[in-house]
Specification:
Radius of gyration: 28 Å
Structural class: mainly alpha
Distance between the termini: 110 Å
Strand content: 5-15%
Helix content: 55-70%
Strand order of the largest sheet: 1-2
Number of helices: 12
Number of strands: 6
Amino acid sequence: MKNVTKLVLVFVLAGISFTGCKNTEADKKETTETTDTTTEAKSEIADKTSVVLNANLATEAELNTLGLSAETVAQILEQRPFVNMEDLDALITNVDKEALYKNVFVPFNLNTTEEANFKMIPGVGEKMAHEFEEYRPYTSVKQFKREIGKYVDDAEVERYLNYIFVPVELNTASEEDIKALPGVGNKMAHEFEEYKPYSSLAQFRKEIGKYVDDKELKRLERFVYLSEK
């Protein structure tokens, strides 16, 4: 009888141990799945907010990482600055453009780009291209973020900022608006401010031309305008 009792106890303890192991394994699996899900979510956000190279500013080394031929890279370096994305698009051949434009682009002027051309932006279809055009004229990037933020999440709005710009009125734009222009940092934004008020674009070229070469000056000029008096 004692032997039978001992045997029963052994089976009970073994059962408890086995159940504990199963629960532990289940907990580990659940933890792993949660971690994987979190990692995937973070990766998705990172993809949305990753920086897109500006074709007018990218170095030769950066362009060489995009899978372009040496000839195409040389043509980009020779022909830039591109006044608009259409000029770059005409140069690109024999590649998956949608995949390429996830990594390099020439930002569109939100106020002048044809609606159909907005569809060159990866992930932008007819509906979103229409929304981009619907809220013209844009006076600031803030306005764009507010209006387009009605349709997509913050991460997607931030991704769009790699592909667009809002031109600024030289004498009234805030420093924040100027710094929102592609490739314009604190130092250059300060120089823009320094020479206000501007009486003409010729004055802008003269003053800003003290700090950059002719190619960069041409690139910067497409971002600004002066209101008629």
